[in-house]
Amino acid sequence: MAKVGLFLGCITPLRYPGIESSTIDVLEALGVEAKILQGTSCCPAPGVFRSFDQEVWRALGARNLALAEEQGVEILNICNGCFGSLSESSHQLREDPKKLEKVNNILSQIGKKYNGTAKVRHFAEFLYRDVGLENIAKRVKNKQDHLKVAVHYGCHFLKPRMLKEIDDPERPKILDELVEVTGAKSIPYKDKQMCCGAGGGVRARTKDVAQKMTIQKMENINEVGANVIVDVCPFCHLQFDQGQEEVETKVPVLHLSQLYVLAFGLPKERMGVEAHAIPVNF
Prior knowledge:
By secondary structure, the chain is an alpha/beta fold.
Protein backbone atom coordinates (compact mmCIF):
# COMPACT_ATOMS: atom_id res chain seq x y z
CA MET A 1 0.00 0.00 0.00
CA ALA A 2 1.33 3.42 -0.97
CA LYS A 3 2.61 5.91 1.58
CA VAL A 4 0.31 8.89 1.81
CA GLY A 5 0.85 12.50 2.75
CA LEU A 6 -2.22 14.02 4.38
CA PHE A 7 -3.13 17.35 2.78
CA LEU A 8 -5.04 19.25 5.44
CA GLY A 9 -6.20 22.25 3.43
CA CYS A 10 -7.51 25.37 5.16
CA ILE A 11 -10.87 24.65 6.79
CA THR A 12 -9.97 21.44 8.62
CA PRO A 13 -7.14 22.76 10.85
CA LEU A 14 -8.79 26.16 11.32
CA ARG A 15 -12.43 25.17 11.87
CA TYR A 16 -12.71 21.39 12.39
CA PRO A 17 -9.44 19.96 13.75
CA GLY A 18 -11.38 16.87 14.81
CA ILE A 19 -11.57 15.84 11.15
CA GLU A 20 -7.76 15.92 11.05
CA SER A 21 -7.28 13.86 14.23
CA SER A 22 -10.06 11.44 13.26
CA THR A 23 -8.49 10.85 9.85
CA ILE A 24 -5.07 10.21 11.35
CA ASP A 25 -6.49 7.76 13.93
CA VAL A 26 -8.58 5.90 11.35
CA LEU A 27 -5.69 5.51 8.91
CA GLU A 28 -3.44 4.26 11.71
CA ALA A 29 -6.12 1.76 12.79
CA LEU A 30 -6.29 0.47 9.21
CA GLY A 31 -2.52 0.04 9.03
CA VAL A 32 -1.95 2.85 6.53
CA GLU A 33 1.42 4.61 6.63
CA ALA A 34 0.36 8.25 6.69
CA LYS A 35 1.99 11.53 7.64
CA ILE A 36 0.94 15.14 7.35
CA LEU A 37 2.33 16.64 4.15
CA GLN A 38 4.72 19.32 5.34
CA GLY A 39 5.05 22.88 4.01
CA THR A 40 1.79 23.10 2.08
CA SER A 41 -0.27 26.19 1.34
CA CYS A 42 -3.91 26.50 0.28
CA CYS A 43 -4.66 24.04 -2.56
CA PRO A 44 -5.53 26.82 -3.87
CA ALA A 45 -9.32 27.07 -3.79
CA PRO A 46 -10.56 26.65 -7.39
CA GLY A 47 -13.66 28.78 -6.96
CA VAL A 48 -11.50 31.77 -6.03
CA PHE A 49 -7.95 31.63 -7.44
CA ARG A 50 -8.71 29.88 -10.72
CA SER A 51 -11.57 32.27 -11.45
CA PHE A 52 -9.18 35.24 -11.37
CA ASP A 53 -5.81 33.94 -12.52
CA GLN A 54 -5.27 30.41 -13.81
CA GLU A 55 -1.49 30.82 -13.98
CA VAL A 56 -1.26 31.67 -10.28
CA TRP A 57 -3.66 28.82 -9.50
CA ARG A 58 -1.47 26.32 -11.40
CA ALA A 59 1.74 27.61 -9.83
CA LEU A 60 0.40 27.36 -6.27
CA GLY A 61 -0.99 23.91 -6.96
CA ALA A 62 2.29 22.79 -8.54
CA ARG A 63 4.19 23.87 -5.44
CA ASN A 64 2.02 21.56 -3.31
CA LEU A 65 2.42 18.77 -5.85
CA ALA A 66 6.20 19.26 -5.84
CA LEU A 67 6.23 18.88 -2.05
CA ALA A 68 4.56 15.48 -2.41
CA GLU A 69 7.19 14.43 -4.93
CA GLU A 70 9.99 15.57 -2.61
CA GLN A 71 8.49 13.71 0.36
CA GLY A 72 7.82 10.55 -1.67
CA VAL A 73 4.09 10.29 -0.94
CA GLU A 74 0.73 10.34 -2.67
CA ILE A 75 -1.36 13.37 -1.69
CA LEU A 76 -4.35 12.26 0.38
CA ASN A 77 -7.11 14.88 0.54
CA ILE A 78 -9.89 15.05 3.12
CA CYS A 79 -11.61 17.91 1.27
CA ASN A 80 -13.44 17.75 -2.07
CA GLY A 81 -12.28 21.24 -3.03
CA CYS A 82 -8.61 20.45 -2.39
CA PHE A 83 -9.02 17.15 -4.23
CA GLY A 84 -10.63 18.89 -7.19
CA SER A 85 -8.10 21.70 -7.38
CA LEU A 86 -5.00 19.53 -7.09
CA SER A 87 -6.41 16.86 -9.43
CA GLU A 88 -7.16 19.40 -12.12
CA SER A 89 -3.91 21.34 -11.83
CA SER A 90 -1.99 18.04 -11.91
CA HIS A 91 -3.91 16.97 -15.02
CA GLN A 92 -3.27 20.23 -16.85
CA LEU A 93 0.45 20.16 -16.09
CA ARG A 94 0.78 16.50 -17.05
CA GLU A 95 -1.04 16.99 -20.35
CA ASP A 96 0.48 20.33 -21.41
CA PRO A 97 4.31 20.57 -21.43
CA LYS A 98 4.18 24.32 -22.10
CA LYS A 99 2.14 24.95 -18.98
CA LEU A 100 4.47 22.74 -16.97
CA GLU A 101 7.50 24.62 -18.26
CA LYS A 102 5.93 27.98 -17.42
CA VAL A 103 5.03 26.82 -13.91
CA ASN A 104 8.53 25.48 -13.32
CA ASN A 105 10.01 28.82 -14.36
CA ILE A 106 7.97 30.35 -11.53
CA LEU A 107 8.85 27.59 -9.05
CA SER A 108 12.56 27.93 -9.84
CA GLN A 109 12.49 31.28 -8.04
CA ILE A 110 11.96 29.38 -4.76
CA GLY A 111 14.17 26.42 -5.64
CA LYS A 112 11.30 24.07 -6.54
CA LYS A 113 10.48 21.94 -9.56
CA TYR A 114 7.45 19.81 -10.36
CA ASN A 115 8.11 16.70 -12.45
CA GLY A 116 4.49 15.77 -13.06
CA THR A 117 4.51 12.51 -11.09
CA ALA A 118 2.51 13.28 -7.92
CA LYS A 119 -0.63 11.20 -7.43
CA VAL A 120 -3.66 13.00 -6.02
CA ARG A 121 -6.06 10.90 -3.95
CA HIS A 122 -9.21 11.44 -1.89
CA PHE A 123 -9.60 9.87 1.56
CA ALA A 124 -12.86 8.11 0.62
CA GLU A 125 -11.61 6.91 -2.76
CA PHE A 126 -8.38 5.64 -1.16
CA LEU A 127 -10.30 3.72 1.51
CA TYR A 128 -12.60 2.16 -1.09
CA ARG A 129 -9.93 1.20 -3.62
CA ASP A 130 -6.75 0.58 -1.64
CA VAL A 131 -7.95 -0.47 1.80
CA GLY A 132 -11.21 -2.12 0.73
CA LEU A 133 -14.60 -2.62 2.34
CA GLU A 134 -13.65 -6.07 3.63
CA ASN A 135 -10.68 -4.76 5.59
CA ILE A 136 -12.70 -1.84 6.92
CA ALA A 137 -15.46 -4.22 8.06
CA LYS A 138 -12.92 -6.25 10.03
CA ARG A 139 -12.03 -3.15 12.04
CA VAL A 140 -15.64 -2.28 12.99
CA LYS A 141 -16.24 -2.93 16.71
CA ASN A 142 -19.33 -0.82 17.33
CA LYS A 143 -22.07 -1.28 14.75
CA GLN A 144 -23.75 2.03 13.99
CA ASP A 145 -27.10 0.45 13.13
CA HIS A 146 -28.95 3.17 15.03
CA LEU A 147 -27.90 5.75 12.43
CA LYS A 148 -30.04 6.68 9.44
CA VAL A 149 -27.58 8.57 7.28
CA ALA A 150 -28.10 11.24 4.64
CA VAL A 151 -24.93 10.81 2.60
CA HIS A 152 -23.66 13.98 0.93
CA TYR A 153 -21.17 13.50 -1.90
CA GLY A 154 -20.50 17.16 -2.73
CA CYS A 155 -19.70 18.71 -6.07
CA HIS A 156 -15.96 18.18 -6.50
CA PHE A 157 -15.53 14.57 -5.34
CA LEU A 158 -16.72 12.82 -8.51
CA LYS A 159 -16.63 15.53 -11.18
CA PRO A 160 -15.26 15.92 -13.78
CA ARG A 161 -15.93 12.23 -14.32
CA MET A 162 -13.37 11.65 -17.11
CA LEU A 163 -10.60 13.07 -14.95
CA LYS A 164 -11.37 11.32 -11.64
CA GLU A 165 -12.98 8.05 -12.81
CA ILE A 166 -14.23 7.17 -9.31
CA ASP A 167 -17.95 6.51 -9.73
CA ASP A 168 -21.00 7.53 -11.74
CA PRO A 169 -21.55 11.15 -10.63
CA GLU A 170 -25.30 10.89 -11.28
CA ARG A 171 -25.86 7.56 -9.49
CA PRO A 172 -22.89 7.03 -7.18
CA LYS A 173 -22.65 4.33 -4.53
CA ILE A 174 -19.11 4.53 -3.18
CA LEU A 175 -19.91 6.69 -0.11
CA ASP A 176 -23.12 4.80 0.61
CA GLU A 177 -21.13 1.58 0.77
CA LEU A 178 -18.39 3.16 2.91
CA VAL A 179 -21.10 4.31 5.33
CA GLU A 180 -23.05 1.06 5.39
CA VAL A 181 -19.97 -1.04 6.17
CA THR A 182 -20.29 0.45 9.69
CA GLY A 183 -23.81 -0.94 10.09
CA ALA A 184 -25.45 2.45 9.50
CA LYS A 185 -28.16 2.78 6.87
CA SER A 186 -27.78 5.20 3.97
CA ILE A 187 -31.22 6.71 3.33
CA PRO A 188 -32.15 7.80 -0.23
CA TYR A 189 -33.46 11.34 -0.46
CA LYS A 190 -34.55 13.82 -3.11
CA ASP A 191 -31.84 15.79 -4.97
CA LYS A 192 -29.09 13.89 -3.18
CA GLN A 193 -26.44 15.16 -5.62
CA MET A 194 -27.42 18.80 -5.14
CA CYS A 195 -24.73 21.23 -3.87
CA CYS A 196 -24.64 21.99 -0.14
CA GLY A 197 -24.84 25.69 -1.03
CA ALA A 198 -21.34 26.80 -0.14
CA GLY A 199 -19.23 25.88 -3.16
CA GLY A 200 -17.70 28.20 -5.74
CA GLY A 201 -17.61 31.14 -3.35
CA VAL A 202 -21.43 31.23 -3.03
CA ARG A 203 -21.37 31.28 0.78
CA ALA A 204 -18.86 34.13 0.85
CA ARG A 205 -20.42 36.17 -1.95
CA THR A 206 -24.18 35.64 -1.62
CA LYS A 207 -24.93 34.03 1.70
CA ASP A 208 -28.69 34.26 1.21
CA VAL A 209 -28.43 32.08 -1.90
CA ALA A 210 -26.29 29.57 0.01
CA GLN A 211 -28.88 29.46 2.77
CA LYS A 212 -31.71 28.82 0.32
CA MET A 213 -29.84 25.85 -1.11
CA THR A 214 -29.12 24.50 2.37
CA ILE A 215 -32.78 24.90 3.33
CA GLN A 216 -33.82 22.87 0.28
CA LYS A 217 -31.28 20.14 1.09
CA MET A 218 -32.39 20.01 4.72
CA GLU A 219 -36.07 19.80 3.78
CA ASN A 220 -35.29 16.75 1.67
CA ILE A 221 -33.11 15.20 4.38
CA ASN A 222 -35.68 15.80 7.12
CA GLU A 223 -38.44 14.38 4.93
CA VAL A 224 -36.84 10.89 4.99
CA GLY A 225 -36.07 10.99 8.72
CA ALA A 226 -32.28 10.90 8.59
CA ASN A 227 -30.67 11.47 12.00
CA VAL A 228 -27.17 12.37 10.76
CA ILE A 229 -25.47 13.79 7.66
CA VAL A 230 -22.18 12.20 6.60
CA ASP A 231 -19.90 14.14 4.25
CA VAL A 232 -16.33 13.90 2.94
CA CYS A 233 -15.55 17.62 2.67
CA PRO A 234 -14.98 20.13 5.49
CA PHE A 235 -16.45 22.98 3.44
CA CYS A 236 -19.70 21.04 2.92
CA HIS A 237 -19.36 20.15 6.61
CA LEU A 238 -19.15 23.84 7.51
CA GLN A 239 -22.19 24.71 5.42
CA PHE A 240 -24.33 21.94 6.89
CA ASP A 241 -23.13 22.53 10.45
CA GLN A 242 -23.09 26.33 10.74
CA GLY A 243 -25.50 26.81 7.86
CA GLN A 244 -28.11 24.70 9.63
CA GLU A 245 -27.81 26.88 12.70
CA GLU A 246 -28.57 29.82 10.46
CA VAL A 247 -31.68 28.16 8.95
CA GLU A 248 -32.81 26.61 12.25
CA THR A 249 -32.64 22.85 11.61
CA LYS A 250 -30.68 20.48 13.84
CA VAL A 251 -29.41 17.33 12.09
CA PRO A 252 -25.84 16.61 13.30
CA VAL A 253 -23.02 16.36 10.76
CA LEU A 254 -20.08 13.93 10.66
CA HIS A 255 -17.15 13.65 8.30
CA LEU A 256 -16.67 10.03 7.17
CA SER A 257 -13.53 9.82 9.31
CA GLN A 258 -15.53 10.78 12.42
CA LEU A 259 -18.12 8.09 11.68
CA TYR A 260 -15.28 5.56 11.51
CA VAL A 261 -13.95 6.71 14.88
CA LEU A 262 -17.31 5.70 16.36
CA ALA A 263 -17.46 2.42 14.44
CA PHE A 264 -13.86 1.44 15.22
CA GLY A 265 -14.22 2.19 18.92
CA LEU A 266 -11.47 4.81 18.84
CA PRO A 267 -11.30 7.61 21.46
CA LYS A 268 -14.32 9.85 20.91
CA GLU A 269 -12.53 12.94 22.21
CA ARG A 270 -10.40 12.82 19.07
CA MET A 271 -13.53 13.54 16.97
CA GLY A 272 -13.47 17.18 18.05
CA VAL A 273 -17.25 17.51 17.98
CA GLU A 274 -17.09 20.34 20.50
CA ALA A 275 -16.23 22.52 17.48
CA HIS A 276 -19.55 21.63 15.83
CA ALA A 277 -22.42 24.12 15.97
CA ILE A 278 -24.97 21.27 15.89
CA PRO A 279 -24.41 18.94 18.89
CA VAL A 280 -23.34 15.34 18.21
CA ASN A 281 -24.72 13.07 20.93
CA PHE A 282 -24.00 9.53 19.67
